[in-house]
Design brief:
It is built from 8 helices and 9 strands. By secondary structure, the protein is of the alpha/beta class. The strands form 2 sheets. It has a 5-stranded parallel beta sheet, with helices on both faces. Strands 4-3-6-5 form a 4-stranded mixed beta sheet. A hairpin with a 2-residue loop joins strand 5 and strand 6. The protein starts with a strand and ends in a 9-residue tail after the last helix.
């Protein structure tokens, strides 16, 4: 069976990365899925790890890689670049796994349009409301102007949720993790789905 691509998108503060990190602690998920890690030109946050959360590179290096056709998809979000390396898809294919990408809506829509022959399943994660989204962003100790930018961007990104196959309103992490696992299980190319 062909490798499928699962795309997880949502505004900053929606909790998509936390949901995915929680899910990838489970052996059944790691055994059946490869997780793609994006390259980015933004600065590393205090708890983030190189090669686990992102590959942090300079703008100069990112643009060189882009020119070399290194990325499956790439986008500029606010002032920073983000891109998914092609080698994660090759790795998933070789290991007969499905690929999971945690990318922004522009990247998600680009891949869905570009890969009509590949089975792509899209999941949009959103916070319950703007107040909660803002609270989560403020917990990150981001600068106020950054929070304002992110909240504005979130309003734009939410308009894309109607084009996604599934929408998770992330009120509670454990419930959202269960919903996402059920989505993976129902759509995976593995017979019988994914179970704990």
């Amino acid at each position: 069976m062909a490798t499928k691509i699962f795309i997880l998108s949502g505004p900053s503060g929606s909790g998509k990365t936390t949901i995915l990190n929680t899910l990838f602690r489970r052996k059944s998920i790691r055994d059946n899925f490869t997780r793609g890690i994006s390259f980015t030109t933004r600065t590393k946050r205090p708890k983030e790890k190189e090669g686990k959360d992102y590959f942090f590179v300079t703008k100069k290096k990112f643009l060189r890689l882009k020119k070399e056709n290194f990325f499956l998809e790439w986008q500029k979000v606010l002032e920073h670049y983000y891109g998914t390396p092609k080698f994660f898809y090759a790795k998933a294919k070789k290991e007969k796994k499905d690929l999971i990408l945690c990318i922004d809506v522009k990247g998600g829509m680009f891949l869905k349009r570009k890969n009509k022959g590949t089975r792509i399943i899209t999941v949009f994660v959103r916070a319950p409301n703007h107040t909660e989204l803002r609270r989560r962003l403020e917990k990150r100790v981001e600068k106020q102007d950054f929070i304002i930018q992110r909240v504005k961007l979130a309003k734009k990104e939410l308009q894309f949720s109607k084009y996604y196959d599934y929408v998770i309103v992330n009120q509670d992490i454990q419930t959202s993790v269960k919903i996402l696992q059920d989505i993976f299980s129902a759509n995976s190319h593995k017979k019988g789905g994914i179970h704990e």
